[in-house]
Structure formats: structure tokens, C-alpha cells
Amino acid sequence: MAEPLQFVVITGLSGAGKSQAIDSFEDAGYFCVDNLPPELAPTLVDLFRREGSKIDKVAIVSDVRGGEYFGRLEVLLDDLKERGVPYDLLFLEASNESLVRRFKETRRRHPAAEGGSVIDGIRRERRLLAPLRERASLVIDTSDLSIHELKARLNKDIIQHSRRSSIVFAIVSFGYKWGIPIDADLLFDVRFLPNPHYDLRLRPQTGLDKEVKDYVLESPGTDEYLERLLALLDFLFPRYAAEGKAHLTIGIGCTGGRHRSVTIAQLIADRYERQGYYTIVRHRDIARD
Questions:
Q1: Burial of 114 (C-beta count, 10 Å sphere; 0-12/13-18/19+)
Q2: In sequence order, what are the residues at sequence separation of 6 or more whose Cβ sits closer than 8 angstroms to the Cβ of residue 70?
Q3: What are the distances in angstroms from CA 68 to CA 38, 73, 77, 128, 267?
Q4: From the CB of residue 78, how many other CB atoms can be counted at a distance below 10 Å?
Q5: Which residues are 89's β-sheet partners?
Q6: What is the Cα–Cα distance from 104 to 66, expressed in whole angstroms?
Q7: Quick one: CA torsion of 114, 118, 124, 129, rounded to 10 degrees?
Q8: Residue 252 has pLDDT above 90, yes or no
Q9: Which of 17, 106, 202, 249 is the most buried (most CB within 10 A)?
Q10: Is it the case that residue 163 has pLDDT exceeding 50?
Q11: 140 - beta bridge partners?
Q12: Three-state helix/strand/coil letters over 87-140
């Protein structure tokens, strides 16, 4: 059965961080549209609710840049509710002082200024958005938040509620003799384990074959190593996800990249996949001689 569509509507004050917010949702695997006229949103919902759609997470930004179309955003929200489409309305705001400073730094025109000053545009926009603020699922004041802090807040309060983890964990087995993976964030060396390469019967096989797997997993020290390694990963994985990291690559290395590292990397990937994490496993050097 396909997962229900997760729909997030982002709105709020100009300069409060909506662009940074939509980037966070895009990093988390959402299909994202910035500055979408509200009247087009039902078409988007219908498209992704069709049977066979590969999209189950959507985030849109709709704000005063939409001009007269933006006034229909409340109608859109009512329509989503009537059609049984669950949604989160995220409202971003900041203090007048913070917003004025940001517009001065970027030297951009405030979309609600209508020829007046930036502060006039901010005040007018607050009045226009007051009804939407009252309907918001989550209101975030970004006055004192860095981009990283905003991203962590969104992951904690919205993104992580929809799925255990939006982060992609890539597990890569490799051989040190062929070089370290340049994209690895964490590296673990399993060359201290007994090497199946020196068993002529096992040498042609790989760490995906049962005999090699049994050899590696039953070797002295493997149990204790896995107990310590998995405890560390159990500690790290949810914290990397909560911090808002979109992709983490874990390298597991042995000498040639065909036996020990393959077995351990596959075990890690299978374990966290069963726990609901999005994992990808790649055995970089398994085909090398």
C-alpha cells in the first residue's frame, strides 16, 4: 500500500527564512515548489495521489509574492481539509528589527512595501498574514536562529514526525589498497579480523557468500567489535538525522575490499534498513582481483 501523501504548506513574513526552510525539506526528500499560486496546489495534490505515484512528500511555499492569487491560500487549506488531505501549515516570522536588517543586507525590495519603506511593508504583511498565523500547525520565530538551527528545528518538529529518518545513510565497503572513499564521513577499519583471503577455498568468494560471512562473523573479536560499533552507530544515527544532515556515508574497509568489509557493511545496512532508516549499500571493490 502506498504511503499517504504528506503535504506541507510554508508561508510567513518575507525575510523570515522560507527559502532556507524549503531547502531543508528538499534535502529531506520532499518534492518542493517555491512561490506556488494556491490555485495550482489542488492539481499538484491530485497528481501525486494517483495510483503509482512515486511522490509521497510535498512541500510548497506560498506567500505575498503571489499577489492577488495569494489571497486564496485559506480557500486551499479549507479544500485540503474537506478532501481529507492531511497537511502541516508552517508559519515563519521574525522581529521587525531582524527583518529590516536582513532586507538592508540583501538590498532587496520588500514585496508588500508598495513604494513605501521596508518597515511599512513588514507591518502591512503582518496584517495580511494574521489569519494564516492563527491556523498554523507550527509558528517559528527566526529572529535569533541561524540557518543550521532553523534546519534542526524543522527536522525535529515536522520532518522527523513523518518518517523515522529522512537522512540517507550510505554504507560503503572498500579496500585500503585501492584508496579511501573520498566522500566518506566516517571510516571504520576491520583489517584486524582474520582474513578469508588466506583460505584458498574462500578466496574466490566474497563477503556476500554464506561461507565467507560465517567465517567473518564467527571469528574471534567480531562479536565484541560489532557490539561496540553498533552501539556507536545507534548513538550517532538519530543525532545526525536530527541535526538535519541529508546524507551520511560510512566507509567499512579491509585490505582488498572483497571479504571482511563486505560482510560487515552488508550487516550494518541490513540492520538499519530493518529499523526504518533509509540505507544504501555499495561494495566498491568487490569485483577487483
A1: exposed
A2: 37, 38, 62, 63, 64
A3: 10, 10, 16, 12, 55
A4: 11
A5: 9
A6: 22
A7: 110
A8: yes
A9: 17
A10: no
A11: 92
A12: EEEEEEECCHHHHHHHHHHHCCCCCCCCCCCHHHHHHHHHHHHHHHHHHCCEEE
Specify the pLDDT at position 71. 65
Separation between Cα atoms, residue 157 and residue 165, nearest integer Å: 13
Model confidence band, residue 13 (pLDDT cutoffs 50, 70, 90): very high
How far, CA to CA in Å, does 71 sit from each of 63, 67, 129, 202, 264? 9, 8, 10, 69, 56
Length of the chain: 289
CA dist., res. 244 & res. 148, Å (int)? 8
Q: Is the whole-model pTM more than 0.90? A: no
Q: Please give the angle made by the CA atoms of 278, 224 and 198, to the nearest 5 degrees.
A: 90
d(CA 64, CA 69): 9
Could you give the CA distance from residue 251 to residue 184 in angstroms, rounded to a whole number? Answer: 6
- pLDDT tens profile 210-237: 999 999 999 999 999 999 999 999 999 8
Q: What is the mean pLDDT of the segment spanning 182-208?
A: 95
How many other β-carbons are positioned within 10 Å of the β-carbon of residue 245?
A: 18
